[in-house]
Amino acid sequence: AIMNGKDKKAGSIAGVHTIKNPIKAAIAVMEKSEHVMLSGNGAEQFAKLQGLEIVNPKYFWTENRWKSLQKAKELEKLKNPKAENSKPDYFIIDQKFGTVGCVALDQFGNLAAGTSTGGMTNKKYGRIGDAPIIGAGTYADENVGISATGWGEFFIRSTAARTIAAKIQYLNKDVKTAAQETIDEIEKMGGDGGLIALDKNGNFAMPFNTSGMYRGAITEDGEIEVEIYK
Ligand code: ASP
Fold it and tell me: Hey, is 204 helix, strand or coil?
């Protein structure tokens, strides 16, 4: 998903297997269609028509991810089927989420947010996470841009990204407080993950309640911050 804070235009795609750069398809949905979200075959057809690069799904195969999937499947077999609300086992073996998110502020004060992911390991076929859902994993308005990673169902149920923007818009909270409160709310619900949020003055927050989150920031002056753990 991608969202432009200035005019609140947004585009997203979900459930695709052949688009080499899904974020480009999200941009095309935003700029070249009358829709916000396209999924599955329709999204792939649209991307092709827009001239985006289409690849064999094998392009996305990696040894590491294949192994995590096999481990997750084995653990699933051992799982108590009654424990529906328990944390999925694949989080135990693979704490790292696979999402890439970005928020940016330009010289004119415009904000944008983008999020791309392969989704959680061993998810059900057809499952859609928070990343492509505007207001859940991705959101931008004139005050703040947000991109989230983590256990998507919780970010959807708490409308995480929009909640942060609303706290800033209606409650005058600063970006750090709004972002931290939202992660705390997700933790209370039993979820985990993290997010990056950047406001119109260049203040940013990167809270998470997992053991780590790969993250980085660069300012106008070229000051770089890169961190993994707390
Ligand atoms: N948020 C993603 C999802 O729920 C997972 C991730 O962050 O890697 O699919």
Answer: strand
Q: Is 94 in the pocket of ligand 1 (CB under 6 A)?
A: no
131 Cβ inside 6 Å of ligand 1: yes
Question: Which string of DSSP letters, residue by residue, matches 118-163?
Answer: --STTPPTT---STTSBTTTEEE-SSEEEEEEE-HHHHHHTTHHHH
Single-letter amino acid code for the residue at 78: L
The two structure tokens encoding residue 105: 């502020």
Rounded Cα gap, residues 219 and 43, in angstroms: 35
Atom index in ligand 1 nearest the CA of residue 149 equals 7
pTM of the model: 0.92
Residue that the structure tokens 């009654």 belong to: 82
Residues 40-70: tens digit of each pLDDT: 999 999 999 999 999 999 999 999 989 989 9
191 in ligand 1 pocket by Cβ < 6 Å?
A: no
116 C-alpha to center of ligand 1: Å?
Answer: 9
Spatial separation of the C-alpha atoms in residues 55 and 22, rounded to whole Å: 11
